[in-house]
Amino acid sequence: MSCSSSSETSVPTLRTVTIPYSELKEKDVDLSSKIEEGFGPNGLGILSIKDVPGFSALRRNLLNLSPRLASLPEEIKKELEDPSTRYNFGWSHGKEKLESGKPDVLKGSYYANPIIDVPTTDEHLIQRYPSYCGSNIWPDSALPELEVAFKALGKLILDVGLMVAYHCDQYVSKGMKDNEDEGLVKILSSSRCHKGRLLYYFPAHQNDGSKGGDSMSSWCGWHTDHGSLTGLTCALFKRDGVEIPCPDSAAGLYIRTRTDQIVKVVYGEDELAYQIGETTEILSGGYLCATPHCVRAPKGAAASNVDRSTFALFMQPDWDQKLNFPEEARLHKELKLANSCLTFGEYTEKLLGKYYHSRS
Ligand SMILES: O=C(O)CCC(=O)C(=O)O
Ligand SMILES: [Fe+2]
């Protein structure tokens, strides 16, 4: 991993560990050392895949639609909202909370399952797990291209993600001898719970530079993803509708390392990055580690009128998937998951219960 220092701050900038697609797709190439370097206990929890056929065009197609979606008339965006799924399908703006507790109006998101439009029609399930069992909402007349572009990129990220998952399973099975878990490939390939998120970070205007603040997490707060594996594209920046390079070298994705250092992480626009989610960290007994991350907004005059579009695919187990929680779990010890068997849906509910409880 190469390392340099970001000009404005003393935070180091690290390049992700990169695997060429030609190696990733081969089942008999041993990638354990790369997986360990990226996702293992001393890795950053992120790695990137380069030269994925077709990726660059699909990324560009979808990310270019993000500002167009965000600038649709408010009444059209309202029709694309779904409060019954807690805004986990369709358009979501100002519904999530920032670290400060204030509503997040800095970005808009569009959520959909790129693999299945209607994962279930069972009302009981829809009510119990609204964020997984809801249905897609597409802007059929206002932006018909969105559905095609979203599904195409989402499917590609899933296919490549399953290849990453295969090599993760190989790495984990070498270390975890009594692993009862089914492995990431098995868990992810049959899931109806994958969720794509098209993100649009609204531009700052000259006089409201203070809005996002100076902090590291000015655009997206510190968090770890909840599911198994997250695919991420490199963000696309525009000023007044014209694509530009990121105007501030300090802006972008930041990660907190295992030793509590904060680093800025970069990868190429033609690379597809993957991060580990909390569920995988727990199930792999810590062989694969989840990563706290956040996004810093660009600052200063150069950031004026600059927007940012990106896409994340959260690969998650099915709500019905039984998970065997091993003894060594480091995360959420207070939920007493060790040696228990819960479905992913039940586990998510337990976790939400914990958060709501601790917030009240
Ligand atoms: O905007 C980004 O680059 C990351 C977004 C993210 O971390 C998330 O949606 O979970
Ligand atoms: Fe995230």
TrEMBL record:
One of its GO terms (molecular function) is oxidoreductase activity. Keywords: Iron, Metal-binding, Oxidoreductase. Residues 189-317 form the Fe2OG dioxygenase domain. The keyword Transferase does not apply. The keyword Metal-binding applies. Belongs to the iron/ascorbate-dependent oxidoreductase family. PANTHER family: NON-HAEM DIOXYGENASE N-TERMINAL DOMAIN-CONTAINING PROTEIN. This is Fe2OG dioxygenase domain-containing protein. The lineage of its organism: Eukaryota, Viridiplantae, Streptophyta, Embryophyta, Tracheophyta.
